[in-house]
Amino acid sequence: MSSHAGRVALVTGAGRGIGRAMADAHSAAGAKVAYLDHDPALAEEAAAAAKQRGCEAMALSADVADDQAVAEACRRVSETLGPIEILVNNAGISPKSGGDGKRSPVWDMQPDEWRRVIDVNLTGGFNCVRAVVPGMRELGRGRIVNISSVAGRTYCDIVGVHYAASKAALIGFTKHLAGELGPDGITINAIAPGRIDTPLMRGSAPEANEAARLATPLRRLGSPEDVASMCLFLTSDGAAFVTGQVCDVAGGWLLT
Known about the structure:
- The protein is an alpha/beta fold.
- Helix 1 links the parallel strand 1 and strand 2.
- Helix 4 runs parallel beside helix 5.
- The chain is globular and about 45 Å long.
């Protein structure tokens, strides 16, 4: 029997792309999965598809930047599926307001855009952790995975500084909380995907995506399932002694 069987997982940004792949992987492994997305239609469609496969799932819509909305969503999950044992902080945005799928340089970036990216990508993770950790501490166990990016580890000219800063901050967030939550039996790790073939990636200029492919030693873009496989490992019993780590899923992009 899978170590995920019967466990309750909350995945944010689960309506499409990497988030949906991770949510689907957990449901296929026997977890009861809450598909949370800012777009209610995407959440409903993803959860409905999981139910059609015979999995136990529910759909939720919330803006992760809104702490009250997150708290209410987590309350609903606990009441419907049971105590949350797995949290995957995936919800994130990467605006390309420079035109033609290109980022805005810092001198053109609007403060409102900066604040929104930080609110969703970083504060959203804080809101979710803050909401689920009391329950995990009561259980004496928990698994948290934060989706960072190679852009949080090195310069990446495809994304804006707000995205890079938020993803770098998630790494610090992960490492600190590994120490803070470890005594309660809670592990927390980060995944740093490289260029993954998702709707978010397709919003970038095609030439930028091709350059990223050529810069990757495996000479291909990653798939959402590549990231989901790593996430499933980190939330499994097999990773019980792994915490505070940043796991690159990037096809060797960061090799030097």
